[in-house]
Amino acid sequence: MSENQPRVAAADLAAFVIRAFRAAGLPAEDAETVAGLMVEADLRGSDTHGVIRLPLYVRRIRAGGINVKPDIRVIGDRPSAALIDGDNAMGHLVMRRAAHLAIEKAKTTGIGWVGARMSNHAGPAALYATMPLRHDMIGLYFAMGSNNHLPPWGGAENLLGTSPMAVAVPAGDEPPIVLDMSPTVAAFGKVRLKAQRGEQMPVGWMIDRDGKPLTDPKKADEGYLLPIGEYKGYGLSLIIGILAGALNRAAMGRDVIDFVKETGKATNTGQAIAAISIDTFVPPAEFKRTIDHFIRDIRNSQRLPGVERIWLPGEQSHTKLLERRAHGVPMPKALRESLDGVARDLNIGLLD
């Protein structure tokens, strides 16, 4: 997304999202929590997983596909691990609860692993993987995709998803290292964003049913996403699906519900988060100094001709976070029109 767009202050954007969720039926505290996480996604530059999802979330709530008064509860508990049943709540609420529980367990045992079932789409993986950072912990996150767009390597049936994973590592004076990725060349949210903007996809994102390049995002349902690293990306999607889906008795494979097409159905989305306490292995200050040194060594290493800078994972998102906090979230025309449509449908007044 070009940064040369009209801007909306993060606080104003969050207030609008809160009004929308309240009008759709979410309790005030839950609306505030979800809105805050959605706007944080946009501040970090995750434009495909932030407020752009508001119209879909509202449609799912109004269609009965999301429980607005859930009983999010722990249904399996051990000293270092737990399983949460989200009761079909907004995924942001479920994963915030799971992250906090994983952190508390890691404070006691050195590691906390919390799985979730009966959840929903929860925004970008980095939102939750970074939560342990402020506790001098490493965060890991895995999630089932909310629809299937990836066939097994060599197959012609979409049985796997763009199931994301993220790993966040704290540093000292440097920004944290945050790897947030899907096992496909492009997440399907990026395909939808291209369609919304009337743009073509690059060759290499998708293929059609004959195995030829597919570049029209409006025909995405007629093709397949491509995995990163060919068969390796397929294998990664499978393993993430097992950790986030099968292990948590959540949907996987043919049981996955397309949350866009079937707005009135519960998706039983599965997720997992782990927090690893650094002081179990090394004093946190020493570890952070090591990571700072490693980051600078990579950044200052010899570059190929024409390369201006070597970036660390998450560094560009951190740069966007600082810039957008200061100057607001870019609001392209298509997104503004989409949010205005939500405002009219809910009769809440347009975004300021």
Keywords for this entry:
three-stranded antiparallel β-sheet, 37% helix, alpha+beta, 352 residues, 10 helices, seven-stranded mixed β-sheet
H/E element sequence: EHHHEEHEHEEEEEHEEEHEHHEH
Gyration radius, rounded: 20 Å
Shape: globular
Tell me roughly what share of residues is in helical segments: 25-40%
- What is the typical, i.e. mean, pLDDT? 95
**How would you classify the helix and strand content by structural class?**
alpha+beta
Task: Kindly state the number of beta strands.
Answer: 14
Tell me the fraction of residues in β-strands, as a range: 15-25%
Largest sheet: 7 strands, mixed
Give the termini separation: 21 Å
What strand order characterises the main sheet? 2-3-4-13-5-8-9
Give me the number of helical elements: 10
| Low-pLDDT residue spans | none
Description:
- The chain has 352 residues and is an alpha+beta fold.
- The protein is 37% helix and 18% strand.
- Strands 2-3-4-13-5-8-9 form a 7-stranded mixed beta sheet. Strands 11-10-12 form a 3-stranded antiparallel beta sheet, with no helix packed on it.
- Strand 10 and strand 11 form a beta hairpin.
Provide a compact summary of the structure.
This protein is α+β, with helices and mostly antiparallel strands and 352 residues long.
Tell me the layout of helices and strands.
Blueprint: E1 7-8, H1 10-24, H2 28-43, H3 54-62, E2 73-77, E3 81-85, H4 91-109, E4 111-119, H5 126-129, E5 137-143, E6 148-150, E7 160-161, E8 165-169, E9 177-181, H6 188-197, E10 206-208, E11 213-214, E12 223-225, H7 231-244, E13 269-277, H8 284-299, H9 315-327, E14 329-330, H10 333-346
Parallel strand pairs: 3-4
Antiparallel strand pairs: 1-14, 2-3, 4-13, 5-8, 5-13, 6-7, 8-9, 10-11, 10-12
Helix pairs in contact: 1-2, 1-3
